[in-house]
Design goal:
homodimer, alpha/beta, Arc Repressor Mutant, subunit A, D-Maltodextrin-Binding Protein, domain 2, 5-stranded mixed beta sheet, 3-stranded antiparallel beta sheet, 10 helices, DNA-binding
DNA sequence: CATAATGTGTTCATTTTTGAATATTAAATG
DNA sequence: CATTTAATATTCAAAAATGAACACATTATG
């Protein structure tokens, strides 16, 4: 029994198609198809119904996915522990962070890291969703929330101070809000599906809903472009506001709680020299920033 | 990451050498060596110390075997469940039983099974140690003790009546024991490392040790040859004594408990049509024998 | 200390697996 | 109903993995 066929099987289940799985696995679509055929004939089972759009699991296939997944979990554990045992400084390391952090905080720090550890190749994965450190989407994650998965080592390295901001252009056009209550007469910029702002407001005792925002976007870059262009009042990290220019802080009495910045890696990787060096360096560098 | 490399890794650990693993896996020794090299270089670890006699696990390798084993367990579960889903009557089936049962009870029954189910190929694995139905050493086991592994379906199909026997030749030479106490003045034939006889005797309230046997062997065929040749007094299933001829039952007052005969398969396989048919047939055929 | 036994490493021809290109199919769409 | 789209199957040349044979190393053993 070829264990790799089970891995391919699982990828096809997860992606829903041979072509999707081929991309995920980094092998060609014909090969994925052949793997599935081989698995089916070696088990004497029909695992998929070759249907209208892609591959749908058959009943027999359905019965097997839990075991296949369990096997994949153990494979992940194996790979993690193996990576943790490596004391080789040479190699690459994957760091993940939100788009904002990746774009505005990390570049200079990673340059210094590069100089300090020339043997380490650094991959930066910028995205806003929580990734799975267990399946090694990344080795190190920098997030604005404390990761909840088990077996992780988390360390709070800094805090981002946030305040209400608007561009001078907006303030010239629509006036300066004097009180928090004033905000309801202004145009606000918010997130669309991300409920970070709404949750923060609820925590501050201010009720609100998605509809209160005149502009909504989940793309932070566009958010600031809207802010800069004078589309409305929004929330922005203070260090970023300085960098963007043209934007003024408002309502100092609206104390928005700082956003914590967490540096995270998997427990198994703490013994990996390369990752330990990077963790220490990033913790030091991020920690001494004035945000 | 190639999952098959982990399977090879585990085989080398279990067998202690590349050549041993190659035999176990049914691949050539150079291939096993290449797999290990590839795994080591892809993990950046030295898993084995290539030593004087075979491959000894390194510290890093030692840390990984538990996870590798866990993965193998899940692979077994997957394969079991897959086999259980098969409703294909064509195919082969592995039956395991003790050498005695394999040699004296099963042949005629398996011939009938062959006629009744011509599409099923039957493999008979004769050995005296408990095999691992979980790892599919066999699909169906016939044992004289109730298997203890979990997730097995066990069914008691018959009992073997056993009595003390000796050949006429022995009785002519050494006389007929009249009472149980008399036995201590006779030559007894016993097992060597197998303690079945001793345990049975303890259960009957008779104390004894290996040393009380004038002849000791674990090979049942040789046991009976000794019995037939008049080497001593021994224990023998009644149906077998008739078949062997020349052997007489002794001491009817020494009531030896019957040996139960258990028919066993793995729970996951109960839904496999082929195995279900064989189980039913064997249960019926073994059950109606007069033993 | 030669020899047998046992194990790993190497070479090369063969077999197997793979991927690029392409054909094919079926549903969705205008 | 033709067209687009998104998927699976097929073909064939190239790449990779494999095994047989053999070289080499080490340990028992007489």
């Amino acid at each position: 029994m070829d264990w790799n066929l089970i891995r391919t099987f699982l990828a096809v289940v997860d992606e829903g198609s041979l072509s999707g799985a081929s991309e995920k696995l980094g092998i060609s679509q014909p090969t994925v198809g052949r793997h599935i055929n081989e698995l089916e004939s070696s088990l004497g089972l029909t695992l998929f119904v070759r249907g209208r759009s892609g591959m749908a699991l058959s009943e027999a296939g359905l019965r097997l996915i839990d075991d296949a997944r369990a096997m994949a979990r153990e494979a992940e554990k194996f790979a993690l522990k193996a990576a943790g045992s490596s004391d080789n400084i040479k190699g690459n390391i994957r760091i993940t962070a939100s788009e904002v952090v990746s774009a505005y905080l990390l570049p200079p720090i990673l340059c210094q890291l590069q100089s300090a550890e020339p043997d380490i190749e650094i991959e930066l994965v910028a995205n806003n969703h929580a990734d799975n450190l267990l399946s090694r989407d990344a080795d190190i994650a920098i997030r604005m929330f404390r990761p909840t998965q088990n077996d992780l080592i988390t360390r709070k390295v800094n805090e981002l101070s946030v305040a209400t901001h608007a561009s001078r252009k907006y303030l010239d056009n629509f006036g300066h809000p004097k009180t928090i209550a004033d905000l309801s007469n202004h145009r606000l910029i918010g997130y669309d599906r991300d409920d970070l702002i709404l949750r923060s407001m609820t925590a501050l005792g201010i009720e609100g809903s998605r509809e209160m925002f005149a502009f909504r976007t989940d793309n932070h870059l566009i958010y600031w472009q809207l802010l800069k262009a004078g589309a409305g009042i929004g929330f922005c990290a203070n260090h970023l506001a300085k960098e963007l220019g043209d934007i003024e802080p408002l309502l100092p009495e609206l104390q928005i709680p700082n956003l914590p910045m967490w540096l995270t890696t998997h427990q198994e990787l703490r013994t990996n020299l390369r990752i330990r060096r990077c963790m220490d360096f990033l913790g030091e560098a991020l920690g001494k920033m004035h945000l």
